[in-house]
C-alpha cells in the first residue's frame, strides 16, 4: 500500500506543479476516510483535519482577493461573489480540473459507489489539498495556487451573484447614488388563477425605473429590478433631475 500511495503523491505533484518538502502532508490530503476504515493499520490519518484548515484558508484568500480587486464594491455583493467561488460545486470543479478524484486513496466500497466523482468528496479533497500546500509551502504559494482557479471562475461567480438578487443590488445602488429607496408597484394581474401573470413596476422617486412580469409578484419584482439594472445610467440621469420623495 505504501508504494501505491507514493505513486499517487508523485502524480499529484506533477499535475499541480508543486514538489512537497513533506510528502506525508500530500499523502494525508489524498487519503479519504474510507481508506482508513478498510486498512486500519496504516500509519497516517485521513484528510479531514486538513480539509478543516483548507476551508478557512480558501475563504480568507478569496475574500482578500475580492477586497483588493473591487475596492468600491459593496460588502453584500462581495459576500455573494465569494459564496459562489467557495461553494461546494465550484471547489469540486477545481478538483476535477486537476484530476484529484483519480488520485485519492479510497476504500473499494466507496470507489465502487462513485466516490471519486462525488461532489462533496471532491470539494473536501480540494480543501484538504489547500491545507497541505499551506502547511508545506506557506501562504504565498498557496495564494497563487488558489487564485489560479479563482481568476478563471470569477466572471461566472460575478454573474451568478449579480443575478441572485436584483432587488438587493438595485436598492444598494439607488440608496448610494440617488439616496432613494425603490418602491415596487403591482400594475396588473392577468389570466386564470392557476396561471396568473403579474406585472410589476419599480419606481425610484418619480421615475419608473423598470418593469417585469412573472407568475408571482416576487418573480415579477425581480424582473423589474433586473430591467432597471440594465439602464442605470438613464435612471441616474432622470433621478438626479427630479426631486421625488424617498419611498
User: How many whole angstroms does the radius of gyration measure?
Assistant: 25 Å
CATH superfamily of the largest domain: Ribonuclease III domain
Q: What name does CATH use for the topology of the largest domain?
A: Ribonuclease iii, N-terminal Endonuclease Domain, Chain A
Oligomer, anyone?
single chain
- Bin the strand percentage: 5-15%
Mean pLDDT: 88
Instruction: Find the count of extended strands (DSSP E, 2+ residues).
Output: 3
CATH architecture of the largest domain: Orthogonal Bundle
Order of helices and strands: HHHHHHHHHHEEEHH
Distance between the termini: 69 Å
CATH class bucket of the largest domain? Mainly Alpha
Largest sheet: 3 strands, antiparallel
Low-confidence stretches: 243-247
Q: Find the structural class using helix and strand composition.
A: mainly alpha
The count of helical stretches stands at 12
- What gross morphology would you assign? elongated
Strand order of the largest sheet: 1-2-3
Q: How many domains? A: 2
Percent helix among the residues? 55-70%
Protein architecture, described:
The protein has 247 residues and is mostly helical. The protein has 2 domains: 2-164, Ribonuclease iii, N-terminal Endonuclease Domain, Chain A (Orthogonal Bundle), CATH 1.10.1520; 166-240, Double Stranded RNA Binding Domain. 63% of the residues lie in helices and 10% in strands. The chain has 12 helices and 3 strands. It has helices spanning 2-16, 23-29, 33-38, 48-69, 75-86, 88-97, 108-112, 119-137, 139-164, 166-177, 217-229, 232-240; strands at residues 183-190, 197-204, 207-214. It has a 3-stranded antiparallel beta sheet with strand order 1-2-3. A hairpin with a 6-residue loop joins strand 1 and strand 2 (197-204). Helix 4 (48-69) packs across helix 9 (139-164), helix 5 (75-86) crosses helix 9 (139-164) and helix 8 (119-137) runs antiparallel to helix 9. The longest helix has 26 residues, at 139-164. It is elongated and about 70 Å long. Mean pLDDT is 88; it is low at 243-247.
